[in-house]
Hints:
Layout: H1 14-22, E1 31-35, H2 41-48, E2 52-57, H3 60-72, E3 78-81, E4 93-98, H4 119-131, E5 132-141, H5 146-155, E6 158-167, E7 172-180
Parallel strand pairs: 1-2, 1-4, 2-3, 4-5
Antiparallel strand pairs: 5-7, 6-7
Amino acid sequence: MKLLRDDQIYWPAEDSLLMLDALDPDLSGKVCLDLGTGSGIVAIEMAKRGCCTVASDISPRSCLLASRNAELNGLEVHTVQGDMTRHFRDLAFDLIAFNPPYLPGRGDPRWAGGRRGRELIDALIDDLPRLMREKALILHADFNLPELTLRKAEKMGLRAEICLRRKLAFHELMIVRISRA
């Protein structure tokens, strides 16, 4: 995969690669959302696997970079600039992939995820019943308390599990898969 780089946009790292590993090998006929697309790496991989792909980010610059990267790879990705999911009023997606800014605290929006790094994770989970047709993949670090995500999803009548893990030097990354029960 070829990617243009912009130093103001989060560059794919271990978290992005873990999300790629969590994607189904065949997404033909699906409508998929890469929420918080950044460089567009996940959206591009989704499109390669056959789905109609929407990439969304709060940053207009990220949306432009994701579009350019999709074109560079000869793929069609629809980009939408907006804050989380508010702009998808009547749309639902078969698969939602979300690699949020997950570091605790405030600061650079490329990696600061608010208190415990959960603010954007919790916002998406609250909106899943409306937005998700089949499943969502949400990246967590161990300090994001993924067990809260599991409990919250289950209380909403959804099935939730940790489907992938990758141990790094100072923390562990996980993909939480949430699906219709």
